[in-house]
Structure formats: C-alpha cells, structure tokens
Design goal:
With 165 residues, the protein is an alpha+beta fold. The chain has one domain. Helix content is 17%, strand content 35%. The protein has a 4-stranded antiparallel beta sheet with strand order 1-6-3-2. A hairpin with a 4-residue loop joins strand 4 and strand 5. The longest helix is centred in the first third of the chain and has 16 residues. The protein is globular, with a radius of gyration of 23 Å.
Length: 165
C-alpha cells in the first residue's frame, strides 16, 4: 500500500511540476516590437535588385532565407566586382521577420502609407500597403514594400493587401 501511495504522489508531483517543452515550434508574436517600414534604398546599391515580382509576397523568417535572397540578387550584379563582397544589413531574426510585396503603378508621383495588424485569434499578420499615384505622367513607379515586423511564428500566415489609387 505504501508503494502504491508513493507512486501516486510521485506521479502527481511530475504532472504538476514538470515543464512541457513546446514541440510545435510556435509561440505568440511579441507585439511590443514596432514594425519598421523600409525605404527601397535600405539594402544598398548592390542589392537594388531586391525587387521580387512575386504576386504572393515575400516572407523571410530566418537569416538563411535572407542570405539566399541576397545571394540571388547579388548574382544580377556579376559585372560589378565591388558587389562580390557586399553584405546585407543585419537583421535580428529573433526579434523581426522581413516581409515584402511588389507594387507598380503609373503617375507623376507616388505617396505611400503602410500598416500592420496582427490577428492573434486567426494567427494572421495583415500587411496593408496604400499607394496613391498622382498625375497623368506615364512614368512607372515600381518597387518592393519591405517591412521588418515582429518575428512571425511558424504557424502564422501573412496576408498582403494593396490599395492603389
């Protein structure tokens, strides 16, 4: 009987006080981290080709993905020896993820506005890009709308919304 009681108390102790490791690799985003909306020139001239005409948008959660994007872009500058050793600006991927969406439109000028909404119930980031093209010029304005956002958990998705006026 003592043995049974001992086993029961031991089992209750382990159930109550054991730490359970998060095996899903998911967590809540740190919403105290403010998004940073980047100018197209942020990456420098050697990475000016970081314009990815990907209709779905770009989501980069790790340094490995970031360096691969930089390497693919750097290859476009093969004629420039100075870019062979260029490095991308540092990003702390423990704190941030990098997202971007290509936009294009025509007009004499363009104004931009951005916002980010984190929907923790539906595990979704909504990145809204508002582009206002003004004038009747036939000049094309195209670039990536990059943002550093609070690190995106693996089980979250990103929805890109582009409003063109």
């Amino acid at each position: 009987m003592k043995t049974l009681l001992y086993l029961l108390v031991s089992a209750m102790f382990f159930v109550c006080f054991s730490c359970e490791k998060d095996v899903t690799g998911t967590h809540m985003p740190d919403l105290s981290v403010e998004p940073v909306y980047l100018e197209p020139s942020y990456f420098g001239k050697c990475f000016g080709g970081l314009i990815v005409n990907d209709t779905a948008g770009i989501i980069i959660r790790s340094d490995k993905q970031y360096q691969a994007l930089g390497d693919s872009c750097r290859m476009l500058w093969l004629s420039s020896v100075m870019c062979d050793t260029a490095t991308l600006p540092e990003i702390d991927f423990r704190k941030y993820s990098l997202i971007g969406k290509y936009t294009s439109g025509s007009g004499c000028s363009v104004t931009k506005a951005y916002s980010l909404h984190a929907d923790t119930i539906n595990k979704t980031y909504v990145y809204s890009i508002h582009r206002h093209y003004e004038g009747t010029c036939e000049m094309i304005h195209s670039d990536m709308n990059w943002a550093l956002v609070p690190a995106i958990p693996q089980d979250y998705r990103v929805v890109f919304i582009v409003l063109r006026e």
